[in-house]
Amino acid sequence: MRYLPLTPADRAEMLGVIGVDSIDDLFADVPVAARKAELFDLPRHAGEMEVERHLQALAAKNRPAGAGPFFCGAGAYKHHVPATVDHIIQRSEFLTSYTPYQPEIAQGTLQVLFEFQTQVAALTGLEVANASMYDGSTGCAEAVMMAQRVTRRKKAVLSGGLHPHYAAVTQTIAHAEGMDITRLPVAIDAEAAVIAAITPETACVVVQTPNVFGVVTDVSKIAEAAHAAGALMIVVTTEAVSFGLLKSPGEMGADIAVAEGQSIGVGLSYGGPYVGLFACREKFVRQMPGRLCGETVDAEGRRGFVLTLSTREQHIRREKATSNICTNSGLCALAFTIHLSLLGERGLRDLAAINHAKARQLRDALAAVPGVEILTPRFFNEFAVRVPGGAAQAVEALLGDGIVAGVPFSRLDPKAGLDDVLLVAATETTTDADIAAFAQALKGRTL
After folding, report:
1. Which of 35-39, 216-220, 288-292, 295-299 has the highest mean predicted lDDT (pLDDT)?
2. Which residues contact 98 (CB under 8 A, 6 or more apart)?
């Protein structure tokens, strides 16, 4: 039976309030050529086994990341996730309410969020962290909005080394808030340009390290210049494993740190869902978006956990809220917390060292290929190379050899004019045989 809750009169009233004559007018921004005039010719029904076979046939057309040499990065990294993570994540202690507004029945969820916040604060070198964001890119946009509230200024400077997807998300959200976004030209090493762009009207500067080209930068000088102008410093990191080896954002003077936490505990999963990490200086905590979980004691003195500073949230403050209560990725935050707990500080440092060593090995192998130029002067586990004949063409050709050679930069920013630049990454999952196969296949193509 069809469920039609609205009458024609209801629809007419809503259209009148919106200010259009018909439902078709709502699609005016969609080109006519892109619209479907009739229903798709889809089968009306099928048996369960038939549907399973059809879906399996579709899935078989994909090439899994683990099916051979794989060098993709650019914000999403292939790391080993121990089977223990999946086992622990399904324990009954964590199967409590997703939105923990009743602490007496959600202690498992709240304790995990508290531990997660503690881990993120330690990784980023800042005093306070929230209970996660939707992902790294939306966290970046929220950081810019937060800087606007703190400084009461409208201008933000985005480094030319910031991941283009992060920049695009930030520009989209900032536009709705009336902010003036200065997005600097794409640059492999962008430190000097960022400092030059800071003015007394700047609310914040956004820099990424390692940046989208893999360049590792000590951004302390940028932080000094930003603070001298009364602006906040926002540091973005897309590869969370790098925290195990590199100086933390807090050590470099960041006021806000944003990161993508996918590398720890979360698989590639076709690009999501992921988990955004967000931390800041304690003095800015009341302007920080997202949930905050605090530790307390109950009437009998027993340790317990509750959401705190909830007056920032939209169910209380409405349009004045600094937090959207729907932004955190609780399940992915749980996976992150479990994996990082299993690793420990020493394990994370060892994992980071292995990643860097694998990347150096890959760099040396590709540097020996005629015509290939290494563009990234200093890196963690990812770097950029210039490939003769075009990066996209090289990737397509090497797929025939069963090698996923990396991410052409033109896929991230088609207008940058860097069609011959390829981003390649190596992690603990990369083998010596993978590296040798990649170099040999690329050498065969460039000769």
Report:
1. 216-220
2. 109, 330
Query: At 193, which amino acid appears?
Result: A
Which tens digits make up the pLDDT trace of 335-359?
A: 999 999 999 999 999 999 999 999 9
CA 318/CA 311 separation, integer angstroms: 10
- Three-state DSSP class for 329? coil
- Beta bridge partners, 235, equal 207, 257
Q: What are the start-end ranges of the E strands in 249-341?
A: 256-260, 276-280, 293-297, 303-307
Q: What is the pLDDT of residue 286?
A: 92
Q: Is the dihedral of CA 320, 233, 138, 120 positive or negative?
A: negative
Would you call 417 helix, strand, or coil by DSSP? coil
Q: Nearest-CA neighbor of 202 among 231, 173, 179, 174?
A: 231
Nearest by Cα to 255 from 291, 213, 224: 224
Burial 352-384 (b: 16+ CB within 10 A, else e): bebbbebbeebbebbeebeebeebbeebbbbbb
Sort 238 into a burial class: Cβ within 10 Å, 0-12 / 13-18 / 19+: buried
Render pLDDT for 202-216 as a digit per residue (tens, 0 to 9).
999 999 999 999 999
Residues 30, 309: Cα–Cα separation, whole Å? 42
The first and second tokens of residue 201, run together, are: 């009207």
Strand partners, 233: 205
Question: Please, what are the domains in the chain?
Answer: 68-80+344-446 (3.90.1150.10), 83-339 (3.40.640.10)
Distant-in-sequence, close-in-space partners of 271: CB < 8 Å, separation ≥ 6: 76
Spatial contact of 388 and 420, defined as CB atoms under 8 Å apart: yes
Amino acid occupying residue 225: A
138-158: b (≥16 Cβ within 10 Å) or e: bbbbbbbbbbbbbbebebbbb
Q: CA 352, 354, 355, 356 torsion: positive or negative?
A: positive
